[in-house]
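Lab meeting notes turned into a lecture example. A postdoc, R.K., suggested we walk through two folding results consecutively so the class can see how the record format repeats. The first protein's sequence and structure tokens come next.
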Amino acid sequence: MEMEESFDAEGSFDDASCLSPQSPGSTSPARRQNKEIKETKITINCVTFPVSASAPEQQLLKPNEWSYCDYFWADKRDPQGATVTGFEVLLQKQLKGKQMQKEMAEFIRERIKIEEEYAKNLSKLSMFPMAAQEEGTIGEAWAQLKKSLADEAEVHLKFSSKLQSEVEKPLLTFRGDNFKKDMKKYDHHIADLRKQLVSRYAAVEKARKALADRQKDLEVKTQQLEIKLSNKTEEDIKKARRKSTQAGDDLMRCVDLYNQAQSKWFEEMVTTSLELERLEVERVETIQQLLRQYTTLRHETDMFNQSTMEPVDQLLQSVDPAKDRELWVKEHKTGDMRPVDMDI
């Protein structure tokens, strides 16, 4: 069965600057020179994570619950190699659940068809005139057995009707047309926040490069002045230092904006993933309830079918060959005077 088509992906996170794990300070000359500094954070697909080897273990937001909000922060690759976000995995779970619900309803529909056809055939068979001339107590039992087929047909017809109204229809109407629209809203909202995060990360990297360039320019001019290889003045040095300081301020501003964007994305991911988790619990519990209703109806059908056989059982217990013989003889006898010898 084909699942309902996935939502259109909003933007890609395969930007060259985001693909490989990077440290926020990986381009800083000072960090390159000091090899003793250990990085405690790493950026993957424009999202910043702590380095597990050096950072204390994070506490789960909802310990011991296997909650959606704790296990879908990273991206992964699908079999075709495309990047799939953790949130997209959660959305696909919702779509798959909707598809499974639809297939369950189709399965119940097939069962309904079988019950209807079975009831139709039972009713038809009950009207066959075969052995209708059987007499006596066995004839009564046979007639009741044929009538029980008609009663059983009615039981299965009612069973199919209840399946339709109490199981199939609720499966079809649970989460109607608006459900997919709601999922698409969630998808677009989170994707927009993620794209903003990518944009802010690009700004950080641009500002980081600008700072490195300004620092390098300041360093070169300072060295040239010290060894008198240039006629640069102190004013030139001050100007380069101001530009370097400005570049540093710009980088701090960009990092702050990036952190704000990541914080907003984080908050919305938690809120929305918990809502998706609630919807999944609701779906499972609803299907559980409907399947329980199916089994209840099935048990009732067995009980009613058994009740249709009780009159047959009673009549079969009353079958008496001697009684049948008495009844038949009384109705069909031709005379009870026996022949005698002829006299001369």
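The second example is placed directly after the first for contrast:
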Amino acid sequence: MGRHSKKNVLAVVFLIGVMYFLNFLLFAQGWIISHPIPNELTFQAERLVSKESWVEQGGYLPLNVSYRVLAGAPSTQQSLKRNFNDAPERVSFRSKQNLDYSFLIHYSASLGRYYLQLEDDVSAAKNFLSTIRRRVAEQEAKKTTWAMLEFSVLGYIGKLYKSAHLPLLARFLFLFYQEMPCDWLMARFRELLTQKEPIIFKPSLFQHMGTFSSFQGTYNRLKDKDFDEVFYTNPSAEVYSDMSTYKKQYPKLAWDREGFFWGRSPENGTYLTAVFTDPAVVTGIFVETGSEGKDLLKSAKVEIGRDVITTEKGEKSCKEFQSVGTLENGRFEKREMDKKYISTSSCLRIKVTAGQKDWVIIKKIRISTKLSTIPHQSKE
């Protein structure tokens, strides 16, 4: 009984297989008849009705696609790669922009030691070239790996590369021109050349001046808030403060223009003091606090001092201070100070005159000086 059952099962399986194969042949022959095939592909039709097995023929089952696609006929429609939910027009614009930059960078590779990427609608700060030279020299002296220095935070403005890297950059933009905008691609390129973090110098040396984008004439409001038309350098100084500092936003960052000082709620009498390396006649002072209307230093006076001393805390300060004014709405500015304060100064101090719960950002401290024509008289 068991033997007969097994034989019956095998017979059914064999019968189903035969029926499937016959139906397949009928389907294949019908497909061939209803779809004329060019001469160069007739050998494929012969193989479909051949008595040889598919294994012996070394072929594959037919695909449900047009023979034009299988033969490699080119598409009659052009496709743009879509990503970031950009419209086709936007993708086309930024792709062409990447290709334009690629050709420009390739052309410029042998023209100099460094390459600075700018646009035609920017304004440059005074002495920007000498400032870039100094910054590059400082960076090279650190003996650290860098691929891109940024002298503006906007888009593809004020980006400096080594010319030795330009052939790689040109090929990189050409290879991935459809993937993303140029300013995103440059960040990936920097990372690939092992510069993990951006190196951004402040204040920015370039400002975007155009109001309309080259893409469909759309209005463009992009502005660099860190741009200063007149680049200045404070005199060399040591900076101290007894305000509680937030993370690494140290007081000297506001003085050296590498960032800003950020302190927790200042108390009455707390200070930020800059002690000059060399005494000088102060001709102007500008202090700006806060950011977008927040973290303003609401009540403080600005003082200049003379006669450097060492305090009990081991800090440097001045023995004598003289008030030159107070902050209003978080700002202080005074010019032509040498007409009234003709003696040399060694310190600048911002002293809090009323405590506040809000934190404080000291964003900018500008000091202009001149050589003294009157000898400095120190007090004993």
